[in-house]
Structures
1.
Amino acid sequence: MTATLAFSRRLRPVLTAAVFAVAGALAPAPASARGPEGIADVAERVIDAVVNISTSQTVEAKGGSSEGRNANPQVPPGSPFEEFFDDFFKNRRGGPGGRGGDNSPRRTNSLGSGFIIDDSGIVVTNNHVIADADEINVILNDGTKIKAELVGVDKKTDLAVLKFKPPRQLTVVKFGDSDKLRLGEWVVAIGNPFSLGGTVTAGIVSAKNRDISSGPYDSYIQTDASINRGNSGGPLFNLDGEVIGVNTLIISPSGGSIGIGFAVPSKTVAGVVDQLRQFGELRRGWLGVRIQGVTDEIAESLNIKPARGALVAGVDDKGPAKPAGIEPGDVVVKFDGHDIKEPKDLSRIVADTAVGKEVDVIVIRKGQEQTLKVKLGRLEDNEKVQQAAIKKDEPAEKPVTQKALGLDLAALSKDLRTRYKIKDSVKGVVVTGVDQSSDAAEKRLSAGDVIVEVAQEAVSSGLDIKKRVDQLKKDGKKSVLLLVSNADGELRFVALSLQ
């Protein structure tokens, strides 16, 4: 009897759970468990605005190459589609050997996606969908094929605008506000995966403001809605039927969806499209500074808490920042009312700001905030992003005058300028050797680099540096901030540990 009671006590919670499970099964499941009911309504309302983009171009044939064959859709071995795809692609090439040794130029075709934003026939897609195409056609949802013209492209955001002559009244879609997206919010992707035609998939917003280092203005929406090859250029909708992104990239080892897709946010797309329609090109704002991140060490050296902002490493003599009073060592923490948490934020916001606009820029200089006014210039497309160059160690006899921070330091002389090809305009103390076990080596300082400032004070000799470092150690500082120039005069900040 006792064993039976004990068993009953153990069983009671299980039975209780079972009762609730049955009750839950009898009650209707919440909408979130089944997925949002509005997906079908959204798809029905917007699908006619989604188009396929067909392009063709003439390319040099490479006899015996498997280059073209590798682009076939990849299907699992034994799949019912395996035989179909094998037969289709072999027949299309005229047999198992394809074109074999035929080296004559040939036409290639590709398919992507796009969407109509204006009933005059304006289509948005990805630049990589139409890049190098000799001919572009828009295929409407009912199969109508129409030749399209290129209005303009922006390679930095991988966007393109096309125009075609409408054969009838068109269904159009509008941009929504991607800034209002929430993590976990349902989204719908429509496109042309694997050239199968209009396909609807749904998922959620997995992340926002993703930087995957694909370009200077990365700020992608990440979604787990199935996006595959051919979806490029297609729209990502919210449940109001508004375009909140353009599907652009996937991460996948096989070429198929693994639930990691990226879309350019509508806020970026809308601005790019407006400029391409108006000017046929992008006219981005330009500040004229070189920037780098604010690490914890740099923040400690500059008395910035918490670490944030974009550290100005150099100022272009012909740029808007120079007359505005922005200096190397300034940390930009707010631009035109927008908080700057990292360098990418500043790059994106400056680029999106109208050329010629006067804006307030808040910088931290020597621990104090200052507000400066800057009138933005225009970033030229052929302008290269400037980065601090790193020289490799050059084996040579080192005329050491002082050692500090794991560095061999010497005053600049004519011989040292010649040896390291240092411009006459560069002033400071030259590094002639680096202890490979030091923090300086880890931070990639090397022979030929010139230390211009230590803790924002100019130096001209190794002794200056040693005295400044000794004083900082006495003051209890954990790190020291160096302003370092390469031989060409390009500056960068480096924080070295004092411990």
2.
Amino acid sequence: MAKQGTLLVVDDNRNILTSLRYLLVDYFARILTLDSPVTLPTVLSQDEVDVVLLDMNFASGINNGNEGLYWLKEIRRLRPQVGVVLFTAYADIDLAVTGIKEGAADFVVKPWDNDKLIRTLVDVYNKVCAHKKEKKRTSAKTSGTDAAMYWGNSPAIRPLRALVEKVSTTDANILITGENGTGKDMLAREIHRLSNRKDGPMVVVDMGAITESLFESELFGHVKGSFTDAHADRIGRFEAADGGTLFLDEIANLPYYLQAKLLTAIQKRSFIKVGSNTPQPTNIRLICATNRDLDEMVRKGEFREDLLYRINTIHLHIPSLRERKEDILPLARMFLERYAKQYGRTNGTFAPDAAARLLAYPWYGNIRELQHTIEKAVILSDGGELRAESLQLTATTEKTTAQTVGEKAEPAFHTLDEMERTLIGQALEQCGSNLSQAASKLGITRQTLYNKMKRYGL
């Protein structure tokens, strides 16, 4: 087999270290040895170690295995992705079993059988590799991380930008609030880009899209056999985000009874996989976002106050597009250039009537609605200057608060999509943005409602 990976052997018997180096040289690309575990933290911080073969007892006069268990916990704390195989005497098998419960991958008994030792170490290395591939698949690295966010120049956005630039380099937990479509996810990505964790993963979790029954498995992962369909180990989002940023979008949609589980993981900076009893540390920077008033939800008993304190070290509120009218046309031009290039159009400018319509429109769907409007206009146009009719915006979407007696009311919508969007908006307003209640009122599932909200920018 081809040599690959790095093995670290920790044993106080130098003869054993020499023997293992000769035995394993054909199976690992690099073999590091330590005759004392004291420098283990330094080695782990400087080298990309895949597997550690760790003796349970060292030359301290104590042979109860506690030293090995201590260093096992240190390895798990410092480099949880490293596979640890315990090296123990036959009399210490019970201790090795305890080590397995503490997170070791396997154990080998001294005196060892060469074939069994090689097979065990290679198997653990293969599991580590599979785990890394799964983590890479699960991790959602920020797309376009190197590209800075477009801020605009309106007076409403300048204070937010100054605060973001100040707090991004810290590891403080951040709560982002704002209406739907204001760009809370883009702001979270910008914070990650500006942070000291920019080279690590940014994992995005849409809390509104996670099935309640799979909440723990999605966030914390599970071990093989922990439930009916658990055919293999799976890493969760907390583990995938290790060393980077975990972004929990739509945090207000997390049911109350699950909030305690999230709070515990945030407080302890560790989690327990479904089907396991071993806490696993994680090193994340937490960013949450919501369009709802969490203080009001706390008053109503819908959101835990202690969880709000934990996620709200720094509060960033994004102003609506209506509050930053100076940025409407620059944003529209940016989207026009992007989609003209994407769809092979020659659109370059907005006609004066189109620019006036863009500025007059209330943009209740904010930047997301503006983006979708420009994309649709580019697709439907034949190129050249975009005129007002190409935008397909109604003259106004303001609600009529009073009508002349006897005057026939004009419909508030002209298409089925507009009607559906209006009905969903009304249901959400009547139910205080409670998705479960609004879905029941509309006669659809919560997931269907959530998908439609995403579609219409609500």
